[in-house]
Amino acid sequence: MKNLDLGRLAKAPFAHWAMARNRRFSPTGIELAAVAIFREESPFLDEWLTFHHAVGVDHFYLYNNFSTDDFSKVLAPWIARGIVTLYDWPKTVGQLPAYRDCVRRHANDARWMAFIDIDEYLFAPDGRRIPDVLAALNHAPGVMVYSPYFGSAGVQAPARSRARGGSRHVSSQSPARPQRYFSQSAGHLSVRPGSHNSA
Fold first, then answer.
1. CB 75 within 8 A of CB 84
2. Is the pLDDT reported for residue 83 higher than 50?
3. Domain residues for 62?
4. Average pLDDT in the 142-151 region?
5. Residue 110 lies in a domain
6. What's the Rg (C-alpha) of the chain?
7. Number of domains in the chain
8. I need a surface site. Which of 30, 134, 141, 189 has the fewest CB within 10 A?
9. Residue 189: what pLDDT?
10. Closest CA to 52 of 125, 141, 120
11. How far apart are CA 199 and CA 193, in angstroms?
12. The domain spanning residue 121 has which CATH number?
């Protein structure tokens, strides 16, 4: 009869649980997804997607909120490549319900979700890819990101690119671990009880 290592045997279920938990969080291999709702923003969609894909966003969950412009033509190549999932979201007050819907549907599909607008650009000032920055923060349920806003600087004609601008306003954004997400209201994330909420 073989000698049993009772200490190792006692730890085995926890090790298997931890490995299963990590697999469950991102079975699709999506490290970072971006979630956004849009209306009449087709001139900016391709630039926004291209930028965020370049800095490490693996997948986009987009919610169309009453758009009548040519957004479907802009998004078609992204959808064909499997990078964008598009939902029709005809709700008058749509943003926060869309975020909740995305978490309900996809919480276990991505390790991180960034809830941002089409006129917001998430990046690391030191040039690192966003998933590389977030990798050191996997213990945290969410991350607050300093966010300067650039206004029109008095220009009257619509801009062709949202990457330019003049006056600034400062706020914050919240990439979050969707598995620990509980609710969101007015830009504030609530996490599940027992989740660590400071990094």
1. yes
2. yes
3. 27-191
4. 78
5. yes
6. 20
7. 1
8. 30
9. 47
10. 120
11. 16
12. 3.90.550.10
Residue 142 lies in a domain: yes
Distance of CA 16 to the CA centre of its chain: 28
DSSP string, 17-83: HHHHHHHHH-TT-EEEEEEEEESS-HHHHHHHHHHHHHTT--EEEEEE-S--SSHHHHHHHHHHTT-
Largest CA distance in the chain: 85
* pLDDT band with cut points at 50, 70 and 90 for residue 25: low
Q: What is the pTM of this model?
A: 0.71
* Alpha carbon separation from 82 to 41, 75, 109, 141 (Å, rounded): 21, 11, 14, 27
- Calpha distance 185→99 (Å, rounded): 10
Report the candidate in 36, 78, 26, 50 with the shortest Cα–Cα distance to residue 175. 36
Q: Which two tokens stand for residue 141?
A: 């349920």
12 located within any domain: no
Q: Using CA atoms, how far apart are residues 153 and 141, in angstroms rounded to an integer?
A: 36
CA 133/CA 199 separation, integer angstroms: 13
Q: Three-state secondary structure along 12-26?
A: HHHHHHHHHHHHHHC
What tokens does 171 get?
């706020």
The burial class, CB within 10 Å (0-12 / 13-18 / 19+), for 142 is buried
In a domain? residue 179: yes
